[in-house]
Amino acid sequence: MVVTKEYKTWQDTGRTEPVEEQNWRLRKSKVNALAAFTSAALILPGLDVTAAVPVPKAAANVQYGHYQESDTRMEVDVYHADAIVPIDDRMEFTYSIDQDTYSGATPNFSVPQSLRALWVKWPKVGDKSFEIPAKVPDVISTASVIDHLWMLPYNFGFKEFKDAVNASESSGETDYGKLIAAGYSALVNRYVKVDDKIIQGFQQQPRETRNMPVLGLKYYFDDATVGLSGGQSNEPDFISNFGTINVSKEFNDKLTTLSGAYGLTENQISRNSGGHSSHVGHKPAAGANYPELDETSTFHNFNLGLSQILSKNTLVQLNGSYSNQNGYLTNPYKSVFVRGEITAYEYFQHAIDSRPLDQLTNLEVVGFDLFRETRPDQRNQWAFSSRLNQFIPGLDAALHADYRYYLDDWGIDSHTFELSWHQPLPQGFMIIPNIRYYSQSQADFFAPYFLAPRADGNYSSDFRLSAYGALSGGVTVSKQFTKGVSLEAGFEYYTHQGDLKLGGGGTNEYADYNSYLAHAGLKVDLSAPGGSNGHSGHSMHKHSGQPPAGVMFGHMLGQAGDVMVGYRYMYSDQTGGMRHGSHASNDLAIINDVIRLNPGKKLGEVLGQPCYAKDEKSDCSISKPTSMTMHMHMLDLMYAPSDWLSLMLMPQLINMEMGMTTLQSDPDHGHAGNHVANSLGDTYMAALFKLFENQGHHLNVGIGMSAPTGNIDLTLDGVDSESGQLQDYGMQLGSGTWDFKPSLTYTGQAGQWSWGAQASGVKRLQDANNLGYALGDMFQSTAWGSYNFLHWLSASVRGVYTSQGAIRGESYRPNARSAPVDFPGNYGGQFWDVGLGLNAMIPEGAYSGHSLGVEWLQPVADHYNGYQLERDGALSVTWGFAF
């Protein structure tokens, strides 16, 4: 699997992958709790299919995966969650959400090595020296400066050039441009060989994030099911809306199931080639005028399947699918080398007469003989697959054997073979080793490079359209615990090689690479027997009620062996004006303060007047933030090894966006626009100790730690590099330090009233992180009261005081130093808030142990350190399930 701009089609949301092989690996790592084939399959031990009836219990699943290619190429962090909930005995609801964050280097084009040698030593006008270097780098960057290549080598220091010009002149040619073109062609023919070694040019992929929510609903008849699902995949340059309808029918005493499905996908494609987080090297070539990319594509997908139980130990599945894709199917970021698409004489005309490049070719020019790839605007795909699930009673294990054949009208056909062994082990363990082989032919319009134009105008050097083979193997281990909780972890290694192609004839080794995928997951039965008996939910309900949703470490589990799984969502918004201390600030004051902290900004210090730097390295732009939003998703895991101790683990996923506007502008620089940060934040761990408990009164102390798992080196352009300008301190995803998080919590209850108070803090345990600074320490105190309007519903009022210090030290990595957010003194302060909340708990029945809380925190007074954006408020939502 290759993870670049197309890797998002793991869920078939519309990217134009060569074949389904590109989508397989991470999809296989996600537990599919939503599949159903036939109720009779329940009699087959070891065959992991479920009945054609709604699931009897609600279940949730969360997973994390990390994908890494060899040679520091692409890496991806994948976060997945899904839930399935029975509505009644005929209907179930499903929901899933995926967030993928990806960055790294990806191949952009490929060329002969000798051409790279010419690029390295190509002379500028007036330079008569020329020598092909003895060793040429195998990997080159599209960021290399090759502007001088537009000037043809009418430099008679080249013997081949001089001889060809003289020969052409001797034959009677008098057009100076054609003489130059003859010399150029002779030079390239001499040094660029048809069978030369192939090397790739790489581009840096900026850090980007894809989000994909999917909703589903399935209704079960006596012997048939109908399912509907739909969702959206959203990323900076690609939006895909999709929907599917599935129908299945059981026959033959439920031993046979026939299923069919139709899916529709509508895609909107753009190219992210400007701004801070843009793709490096994707602006059009100088001398060309191309409109911004704004294209669409539509996919129609049809599927027909048959599932047949052959015996109590054997299940066979057959499946056929057809997909019609039309519209823009090209990769907007890939380039291709095509010699002769623009002739040497036409390059001469461009250099001498400034003839526009877009008048010389229908292809979009991005460099010297480099063009954006072009694929056909329609594609028809067919796939046929089969699976045999065989349970082996003597080993208490099951063998899954899969084969898939694929073909399309782009000239690609592929074969996929896969074997997996499902072996239960004692103590609730399961181990699943697997091996997989894949082979495909190349597309009709693929070549590593083109030494002559194609008649149909279609070109691609994307190695995923090449002929190659791939071999992968891995193992997944899972553990089923009591009370409906299971954990799994897995690892897979993958190798992509041209010489692994079935029957030989694969693309040579220039495109070979390896990768690995590590993943882990947690699955919870949300109506497990431990939760339905009511003791855990009832205990926590009587345990002084629930604290407001915004309070962390606010309660303990009631008894030894209790478990709680929860989800916490927090949203904060800053869209007010700029503040200084307790007062509003004006733009001129902000400009003067930035200049005070960074005197290099003094040019153009009059508000609203453009500034002009003295040289290219100067930057006199000044900006301010206009908005900042934060979405935090946290998984709460709690376990009580005893009735006086509760242990907590809380990983979190953070999504932030900041809007900036320019106060004084520099034509060549700037810090305006939207900045985003999305990925894993710091991870919290805590131990809660019961200090005191009697009728209606409880006191606990929390000893917590925060592990620095969040990035602190996110850059403005999204590219992972030491030289890139960092985003501001507040847009980094973690502190970069180990932090101590103590808390002391008191709760009380009398009748329908409950109350509580908490003191908590954050103490940085290191003087500085590895970038040379530390966030400020924090102290917070809060008190609340609540009243139970119903036996399951209460309302709360809370007051909060927070004091946080400014950032200590300063990052040694460069940031823009052009806005208040770029300076350490403009962080922290003292803040007063009032919160209003609702809490609900289900005390009995099938969903006993579930709780839900929501709270809005409204700022009432602030005293900011330095210049900061005013706070508008924060929302907290919590869900928990104790069992």
Describe this structure in words.
This protein has 883 residues and is mostly beta strands. It has two domains: 7-107 and 202-525, Porin (Beta Barrel), CATH 2.40.160; 545-583 and 625-882, Lipocalin. Helix content is 9%, strand content 48%. It contains eight helices and 39 strands. The strands form five sheets. It has a 16-stranded antiparallel beta barrel.
Please sum up the structure shown.
The protein is mainly beta. The chain contains eight helices and 39 strands. It has two domains: 7-107 and 202-525, monomeric porin ompg (Porin), CATH 2.40.160; 545-583 and 625-882, Lipocalin (Beta Barrel).
What class would the helix/strand composition place it in?
A: mainly beta
Count of separate structural domains: 2
The outline comes out as globular
Q: Within the CATH hierarchy, at the fold level, what is the topology of the largest domain?
A: Porin
What is the strand tally?
A: 39
Enumerate the strands of the largest sheet in spatial order, edge to edge or round the barrel: 1-2-3-5-6-7-8-9-10-14-15-16-17-18-19-20
Write out the CATH superfamily name of the largest domain.
monomeric porin ompg
N- to C-terminal distance? 40 Å
Radius of gyration: 31 Å
Q: In the CATH hierarchy, what is the class of the largest domain?
A: Mainly Beta
CATH structural architecture of the largest domain: Beta Barrel
Please count the helical segments: 8
Descriptive keywords:
mainly beta; Lipocalin; 2 domains; 16-stranded antiparallel beta barrel; 12-stranded antiparallel beta barrel; 39 strands; 9% helix
